[in-house]
Inverse folding.
């Protein structure tokens, strides 16, 4: 099965832009979803089909997919955005993969 | 708003069995595929098993295949996961998760998650 690679951590100052990458060999064949998880809480869907936001998700969260690398961008980051972020994709070999997660710290 | 409530977690000895349940409400349960995703304390997310809307298409992660069985009862809006031969590697929070699609093997997102139920495997 494919593996999704994410940086373990990203640190940014309030108001700056955080970019989290997700790399995988098969990402050009499938859509990527992104989830936010805060301590003690279940994951929350942030982005689906590479770029779409569910209702209620702020516009500062955006996604892109350039083939083998998908990116979650948090523009004008706020302290409340401190969390773990996971990418996820369907593996056509009959599985679903998650990245290992990226911890975002707002300095 | 979709709601998912897991139950059945607890302490079990290595080699033991446990059955998790998930009660769904707030959406047409029989129109969506469903999944179980687990997370060991302090670790990342791992897909465990999934089931299509009808229950006739299903899948398992390699690490649980042959030990776990997923099922659903659309008349009762419920999802289950029967687990046997549990090991310490299975210790985790288990989340009941709704797919955004009726079919299992798609790129559809996991759009609603329950709060999770903790499975502890220890002697």
């Amino acid at each position: 099965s494919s593996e999704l690679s994410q940086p373990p951590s990203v640190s940014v100052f309030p108001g700056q832009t955080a970019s989290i990458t997700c790399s995988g060999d098969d990402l050009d064949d499938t859509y990527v979803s992104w989830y936010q998880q805060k301590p003690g809480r279940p994951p929350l869907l942030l982005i689906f089909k590479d770029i779409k936001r569910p209702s209620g998700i702020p516009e500062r969260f955006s996604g892109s997919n350039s083939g083998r690398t998908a990116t979650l961008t948090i523009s004008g980051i706020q302290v409340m955005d401190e969390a773990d972020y996971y990418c996820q994709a369907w593996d056509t070999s009959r599985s679903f993969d998650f990245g290992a997660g990226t911890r975002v710290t707002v300095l | 708003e979709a709601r998912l409530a897991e139950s059945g977690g607890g302490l079990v000895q290595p080699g033991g069995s446990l059955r998790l349940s998930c009660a769904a409400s707030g959406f047409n349960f029989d129109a969506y595929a469903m999944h179980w995703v687990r997370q060991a304390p302090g670790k990342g997310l791992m897909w465990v098993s999934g089931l299509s809307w009808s229950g006739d298409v299903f899948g398992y992660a390699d690490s649980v295949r042959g030990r776990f069985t997923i099922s659903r009862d659309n008349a009762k809006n419920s999802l289950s996961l029967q687990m046997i031969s549990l090991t310490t590697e299975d210790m985790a929070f288990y989340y009941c998760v709704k797919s955004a699609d009726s079919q299992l093997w798609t790129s559809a997102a996991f759009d609603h998650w329950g709060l999770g139920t903790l499975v502890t495997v220890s002697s």
